[in-house]
Amino acid sequence: MVNSKMNSIEKQVASYLLEIGAVQLRPDEPFTWASGWKSPIYCDNRKLLSFPEIRTRVCDFMVQTIEEHFKNIDVIAGVATGAIAIGALVAQKMGKPFIYVRPQPKDHGTGNQIEGVFKHGDRVIIIEDLISTGTSSLNSAVAVAAAGCIVEGMVAIFSYNFPSARRAFELSSGLELYTLSNYDVLIETAVEKDLISESDLEMLRDWRFHPDTWGK
């Protein structure tokens, strides 16, 4: 798992997510995720789509990251549903075909898991909006590879930086992941903006390492 080294981009994207409320930090009133985990953070990057200037900047950062780290890409793929729109915007900027990947094949019609047109041997970059455990993201890469494409890597808007996700990507035959921003940068940025207190930092850092037991 490779993190972007473009610290200015990491901080800028973290600022955007906080500014528009795509990320909410609530250490005193934790959120409950669908998994049942208690969390001091909630991230909904689909809110980016409602802010034209910010979504344009985020797309530009994604294109910059792809062009810096990958060559001769044929197709851009978005992971359903959160990364479909942002992935399509990235593909439009790059002049590339776009496909999207469902969590599982449809149970009706053609039964497709991947929607769109692609060829065997196409070199694909997968776009994600959010990396949490990494399971669904890696499953999408498996599906694209099983369809005969070459998965060159993945670019995501944000990652929680869970150690388990890092290990999962490291074990996934070297699939390269680049994220525009991440949890560590975000909480530091939130302190700088007086959105959370210094005293909350240790608790917030602890959550990243023990998300399954935190708050219990």
Any chance you could write out the topology, listing elements then pairs?
Layout: H1 7-19, E1 23-25, E2 31-32, E3 38-39, E4 41-43, H2 52-69, E5 75-79, H3 84-94, E6 98-101, E7 114-115, E8 123-131, H4 135-146, E9 150-159, H5 163-170, E10 177-182, H6 183-192, H7 198-209
Parallel strand pairs: 5-6, 5-8, 8-9, 9-10
Antiparallel strand pairs: 1-4, 2-3, 6-7
Helix pairs in contact: 1-6, 2-3, 6-7
Summary keywords:
216 residues, single chain, Rossmann fold, globular, alpha/beta, 10 strands, 21% strand, disordered N terminus, 7 helices, 6-stranded mixed sheet
Tell me what you see in this structure:
The chain is of the alpha/beta class and 216 residues long. The strands form three sheets. It has a six-stranded mixed sheet with strand order 7-6-5-8-9-10, sandwiched between helices. Strands 1-4 form a two-stranded antiparallel sheet. Strands 2-3 form a two-stranded antiparallel sheet. Strand 8, helix 4 and strand 9 form a beta-alpha-beta unit. The two termini are 29 Å apart. 41% of the residues are buried.
Q: What would the principal axes of the Cα set say about the shape?
A: globular
Q: What is the string of SSEs from the N terminus onward?
A: HEEEEHEHEEEHEHEHH
Strand content: 15-25%
* Residue windows where pLDDT falls under 50 for at least 5 positions: 1-6
CATH class: Alpha Beta
Rg, Å, rounded: 17 Å
Work out the helix count: 7
The tally of structural domains comes to 1
* Strand adjacency order, main sheet: 7-6-5-8-9-10
Strand element count: 10
Q: Level of helix content?
A: 25-40%
CATH topology: Rossmann fold
Largest β-sheet summary: 6 strands, mixed
CATH architecture: 3-Layer(aba) Sandwich
